[in-house]
């Protein structure tokens, strides 16, 4: 997707929230959007999601898009599964595929017991898991997350981190806003800040804190590792194997990417590192 000279204001004479925004969203990329409260971050994400339209400028090349809003509208006449099925169909899935995807994401977020519970009776945390699940149902090419981690428990946050890594490894673009500056720090490829009405690129700084995992993998003769792997792992190439080091939150997605690549790679060893091992 590309934005050129995009501006947005509300009302004919209203002040500009954003103006002159140029932005490219390449595949295999995690993009963080920063800015103070009320700066226009959510407006930008709504433009990317197609919820809002630009007042001026152009937005082209829209891929299959999914969006998690800052506030989930829980007062809807659906059960948890009913809502996921409904959104799955909107995302273009057939009924059987939508049912399978709904079951998968309810299981991954550990909320299968609420499958038939009306949305209005769910806790805020469970509602947020449903909000995230609907965005992941149809394997979007552009995943837009507006403070999607807020309200999630630790396990669900890790599940969402892993899901973002999976989508990006598959070629998607993820754009997110979050109050935690460490969120997806090992995976972020671009950072943009809303300043005034402009969008300014800033340097991405990777966090090296937190648990990491070292994976030793070997491919068949002549095999080359994919260019984009979950978590942007560090690489050390040996005579007959490659060692990859990645933040632990991305390790499952990285292993999955190696094992499902064509041709698949053989995993020789997995080690969890302590700080002195790095």
From TrEMBL:
InterPro entries given in the database record: AAA+_ATPase, ABC_transporter-like_ATP-bd, ABC_Transporter_VariousFunc, P-loop_NTPase
Name of the featured protein: ABC transporter ATP-binding protein
Keyword set includes Transport: yes
Source taxon at top rank: Bacteria
GO-annotated molecular function: ATP binding; ATP hydrolysis activity
Key words of the record: ATP-binding, Nucleotide-binding, Transport
SMART domains in the record: AAA (SM00382)
Residue stretches making up the ABC transporter domain: 1-227
Organism of derivation: Streptomyces beijiangensis
Organism taxonomic ancestry: Bacteria, Bacillati, Actinomycetota, Actinomycetes, Kitasatosporales
Keyword Phosphoprotein attributed: no
Entry-linked Pfam families: ABC_tran (PF00005)
PANTHER family (UniProt xref): ABC TRANSPORTER ATP-BINDING PROTEIN ALBC-RELATED
């Amino acid at each position: 997707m590309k934005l050129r000279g995009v501006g947005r204001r509300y009302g004919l004479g209203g002040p500009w929230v954003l103006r002159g925004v140029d932005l490219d969203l390449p595949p295999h990329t995690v993009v963080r959007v920063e800015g103070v409260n009320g700066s226009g971050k959510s407006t930008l994400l709504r433009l990317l999601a197609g919820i809002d339209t630009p007042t001026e400028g152009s937005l082209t090349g829209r891929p299959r898009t999914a969006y998690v809003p800052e506030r989930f509208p829980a007062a809807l006449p659906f059960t948890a599964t009913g809502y996921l099925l409904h959104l799955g169909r909107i995302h273009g899935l057939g009924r059987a595929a939508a049912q399978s995807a709904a079951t998968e994401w309810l299981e991954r977020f550990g909320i299968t017991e609420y499958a038939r519970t009306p949305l209005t009776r769910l806790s805020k945390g469970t509602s947020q898991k449903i909000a995230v699940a609907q965005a992941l149902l149809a394997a979007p090419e552009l995943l837009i997350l507006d403070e999607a981690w807020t309200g999630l428990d630790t396990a669900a946050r890790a599940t969402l981190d892993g899901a973002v890594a999976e989508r990006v490894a598959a070629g998607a673009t993820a754009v997110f806003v979050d109050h935690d500056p460490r969120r997806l720090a090992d995976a972020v490829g671009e950072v943009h800040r809303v300043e005034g009405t402009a969008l300014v690129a800033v340097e991405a700084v990777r966090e090296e804190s937190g648990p990491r995992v070292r994976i030793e993998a070997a491919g068949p003769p002549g095999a080359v590792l994919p260019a984009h792997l979950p978590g942007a792992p560090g690489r050390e190439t040996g005579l007959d194997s490659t060692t990859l080091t990645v933040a632990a939150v991305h390790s499952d997605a990285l292993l999955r990417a190696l094992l499902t690549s064509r041709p698949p790679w053989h995993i020789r060893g997995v080690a969890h590192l302590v700080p002195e091992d790095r």
